[in-house]
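task queued by scheduler; priority normal; single chain, no ligands, no partner chains; default sampling; output format set to C-alpha cells
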Amino acid sequence: MRVGDTAIFIGGDIFIAHTIEYQNELWLVPEWLIVQVHGEQFAMPERIIPLVLLPFEEQKRPNWDRIVPRGLTKELLTGAPSPEELDRLGILLKPDIRYPVGVETRNMHPDPTSH
C-alpha cells in the first residue's frame, strides 16, 4: 500500500519518490515498471529501499511526508548498485509487489517547488 512521498536530498537537488508499506516497513520506490501478468497490467517497483536503514525524518509538506537528507545517491536509486550496496542498504530488486494500473504510481522526479 502506498503511504506517501519522500523527499530525497542529493547534492543541491530534491527528488520525490513514492513510499510504500511492505512487510511492516516503509520502503522507497524510485521507479515503477508496468508489467503484464495473465493478461492484466500491473505497476511493480523496479527496486525498493528500506527507510529503516536511512536517516529519514517525518516531515509533512505539500509535496512530501518525510525526508531523507543524506545517505543516497542518484546511482543507488536508479543505477546499478553493486552487490555490496544492495546488501548494505537492503535494496530489493523487482520484488513481487503489484498495484493495479490506475493506482497513482510515478517515478522519482525532481521537486518542482525546489527551484
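post-processing summary
- The chain has one domain: 2-110.
- Helices lie at 74-78, 83-89.
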